[in-house]
Amino acid sequence: MWQVYLSGEIHSDWRQRIEDGISAKGLAIEVSSPVTNHEASDDCGDVLLGKEQQPFWKDHKAAKINAIRTRKLIAQADVVVVRFGDKYRQWNAAFDAGYASALGKSIITLHDEALTHALKEVDAAALATAQTPEQVVEILTYTMMAD
Fold first, then answer.
1. Are the beta carbons of 112 and 92 closer than 8 angstroms?
2. Is residue 147 over pLDDT 70?
3. 54-66 pLDDT tens trace
4. Which of 12, 17, 125, 127 can bridge 101 by disulfide, Cβ–Cβ 3.0-4.6 Å?
5. Which domains, ranges and CATH numbers included, belong to the chain?
6. Any residues with CB less than 8 A from the CB of 122 and at least 6 apart, and which?
7. Rounded distance between C-alpha atoms, residue 4 and residue 7, angstroms
8. pLDDT digits over 73-129, tens only?
9. Under DSSP, is residue 36 helix (H, G, I), strand (E, B) or coil?
C-alpha cells in the first residue's frame, strides 16, 4: 500500500479526480491531505487555543497546529503531489514541496502550463510535472506496475 499526500489548492475538484482515478484503476494507494476546509484551517488556533486580537498571531497559531498534520503525513508519504492553482498564491503548497524535497520524497507537481515559469524551481525538484489530475493517476499507475 502506497501513501500519497495531496498538497495544494483547495478550490477545485482535483483531489476527487485523483481519488476517483485511483479507485477506478484499483491501485493500492491510501490518499491523505491537509485540512481542506478553508475556514476550519484558518480558525483552528482561535477555536482550540483562544481568540487572538491580532491577525498575525491568529495565523501563527493556526499554521503551527496545521503543521502537525502536514509534517506527519508528508513524512509518511511515498509520493507527494503538489497542486498549484492559478486563482490564489499557494505559498503553503510551495513550502510543502520544499519540505518533501528536503525529506527526499518523490514529488509530482500539478499545474497549468501558464504557471511553468513561476514554478520552475519547484518543478526542478519534482520527478514529474503534470497538467491534469488524470496524468497524475497515469504516473501513479505506471510507477506501481509490477515487473
1. no
2. no
3. 999 999 999 999 9
4. 125
5. 2-35+77-143 (3.40.50.2300)
6. 82, 84, 94, 97, 98, 109
7. 10
8. 999 999 999 999 987 778 899 999 999 999 999 999 999 999 999 999 999 999 999
9. coil
